[in-house]
Description:
Number of helices: 2
Strand order of the largest sheet: 1-2
Helix content: 25-40%
Order of helices and strands: HHEE
Mean pLDDT: 84
Low-confidence stretches: none
Structural class: alpha+beta
Amino acid sequence: MNIKPEKLEEERRRLADMSAYEKEYADMGLICGVDEAGRGPLAGPVVAAAVMLPKDEEILFLI
Length: 63
């Protein structure tokens, strides 16, 4: 993967901004991220997911 240095730095700043919640609650131990997609149980199917990543994991271009 060939990434321009300025794009890489921009992505690292974006990830740092996204991790504000994790930094605020770091002393709580494990933190789990959850999300759902769909119309809701009364209107149609719903898919839910949860993920826990290692502390200080850097996954570039994570949305």
